[in-house]
Design goal:
α5 packs antiparallel against α8. β6 and β7 form a beta hairpin. The longest helix is centred in the first third of the chain and has 20 residues. Helices cover 29% and strands 23% of the residues. The N terminus is likely disordered. A 5-stranded antiparallel β-sheet has the order 1-2-3-5-4. Strands 8, 9, 10, 17 and 20 form a 5-stranded mixed β-sheet that branches. Strands 13-12-18-19 form a 4-stranded antiparallel β-sheet, with no helix packed on it. The chain has 481 residues and is α+β, with helices and mostly antiparallel strands. It has 2 domains: 247 residues, Transferase(Phosphotransferase), domain 1, CATH 1.10.510.10; 123 residues, Immunoglobulin-like.
């Protein structure tokens, strides 16, 4: 059980911690207590005071200064930067920029998943923050929706100066530090963690923001960690603009995941994009209109005690003040359109198909499988195809790469009149198609797949979809955006 805070920290008014004057307490978590405070110039900051029992650990004291100095080197791009770290008597504290906005989990809980330009901006903003964090030699280790604040200027990642300090507590207590639904497979296995773990968490966060649920589900920590390490993520409902990058980010092998910088380049469709430029794009497409103060459903259900996950905003009445995010208009719509073209190479309308366009069963390597063609969409001469393969046989175990290889490059479109075949389009040495997971699937597991094709004649209203192992799905209608 966490130790109770000392009385003078519970009611901090009238005293300072270092040069900072606490104004009110924002929350409390496993690492310490967070206050809204003012610096000597009167500016608002978030002041995190570490728990005395942590400060008494020699390992913590030795790591505190090293990690705090590293965190202060992080550039101020899509982050709540660490401004200061110090010692007041026996109290260690960290000071970060105060971000006025709710966390992502509160917004999704209250209003549902993000869509359109808001989702695009979130994906770019968090990737930008990770690129800045990693460039400074820091690994966040605990990226999750509650550590992403939605400010009027865009998403801001917080607590990258705290997550590594939590290792001291983990080493002393033997507990796992992190949120299971957003931990990487190597974290779940207790292996060495690198910046690739943050990229995996990015994939989980974007999937959550787009669908309203973490891709590996919820429940008891051991069950979630097992799914993280061994199961295919559930990405049903994820916008097809982001699916390919999310799938690559969620690869079980950290060596196969893109870096945060590479994520940023793929999202913006340009090489060597600077994080400063990416931050400007995010800010430009992120609306700043503000809604009346209100309490979210999350706060109505239970008090939020997790100070470590937020230096978030509350007004003096205790209700959360937050700005809804929406796509900007006018010139900003041009920037949003650029993001849309880069992030949405597969087409995609606003309405999902009401049912599969074709279905086939097959027995492959002793496993019973069911495949459906879920959507075929056109934008100009580009056509995207969405497929789903479900393991249906009782007790079946299936290794998808035996059939597809490491990518869905063998799936082809067939022009019925002339018999011409179209292979998935190529980009950056690989196909614009799903990366096939390197793991076993069992009964009931679902494998969503996609592939994108270019140069398909615009006059075609139907197409054949040739799927390895399942054969030709004939006369599949093509939906035009």
């Amino acid at each position: 059980m966490d130790a109770q805070p000392s009385p003078d920290l519970t009611t901090p008014h009238g005293r300072t911690i270092g040069p900072y004057a606490p104004v009110r307490r924002l929350g409390e978590g496993g690492m310490g207590i967070v206050y809204l405070a003012r610096d000597p110039d009167g500016r608002e900051v978030a002041l995190k005071v570490m728990r005395p029992e942590l400060a008494s650990l020699e390992e913590f004291r030795a790591r505190f200064r090293k990690e705090a100095e590293a965190a202060k080197r992080v550039a101020r791009f899509c982050t709540a930067p660490l401004l200061d770290a110090g010692l007041d008597g026996d109290r260690h504290y960290l000071v970060t920029e105060y971000v006025d906005g709710p966390d992502l989990s509160a917004v999704v809980d209250a209003r549902g998943p993000l869509t359109g330009s808001n989702l695009d901006a979130l994906a770019v903003g968090v990737a930008t923050a990770l690129a800045a964090v990693h460039e400074a030699g820091v690994v966040h280790r605990d990226l999750k929706p509650s550590n992403i604040l939605l400010s009027p200027l865009g998403p801001r990642v917080i607590d990258f100066g705290v997550a590594q300090l939590a290792d001291t507590l983990a080493e002393r207590t033997g507990t796992v530090i992190g949120t299971p639904a957003y931990m990487s497979p190597e974290q779940a296995r207790g292996e060495t963690v690198s910046s690739a773990a943050d990229v995996f968490a990015w994939g989980c966060v974007v999937a959550y923001a787009a669908t309203g649920r973490p891709p590996f589900g919820g429940g008891a920590a051991p069950e979630v960690l097992y799914r993280v390490a061994h199961h295919v993520p559930n990405l049903a409902g994820l916008d097809e603009r982001l699916r390919p990058l999310v799938e690559r980010a969620l690869d079980k092998d950290p060596a196969r995941r893109p870096t945060a910088q590479r994520l940023l380049e793929r999202l913006l469709g340009r090489e060597e994009v600077a994080v400063e430029a990416a931050t400007r794009i995010v800010s430009d497409i992120w609306a700043t209109s503000e809604a009346p103060a209100r309490t979210t459903r999350r706060s109505a259900r239970r008090p939020d005690r997790s100070a470590d996950r937020r230096a978030g905003a509350a007004d003096p009445s205790g209700t959360r003040r937050w700005a809804p995010v929406a796509a900007a208009g006018g010139a900003l719509a041009v920037i949003a359109a650029v993001l849309l073209v880069v992030l949405h190479p597969f087409g995609g309308g606003e309405t999902e198909p009401k049912g599969p366009l074709g279905a086939r069963d097959a027995k492959i390597s002793g496993s019973s499988l069911h495949a459906t063609v879920d959507a075929v969409r056109r934008r100009g001469t580009s056509v995207s195809v969405q497929l789903t393969v479900t393991v249906t046989g009782k007790g079946s175990r299936w290794w998808p790469r035996d059939l597809f290889g490491d990518q869905l490059s063998g799936a082809a479109l067939v022009d019925p009149p002339g018999g011409a075949k179209f292979a998935p389009a190529q980009k950056d040495g690989g196909c614009l198609c799903s990366t096939v997971p390197a793991q076993w699937l069992g009964e009931g597991d679902v494998l969503p797949l996609y592939a994108t094709y270019t140069g398909v004649p615009e006059g075609l209203e139907q197409i054949g979809v040739d799927v390895p192992g399942f054969g030709l799905f004939s006369d599949v209608p093509i939906a035009t955006e």
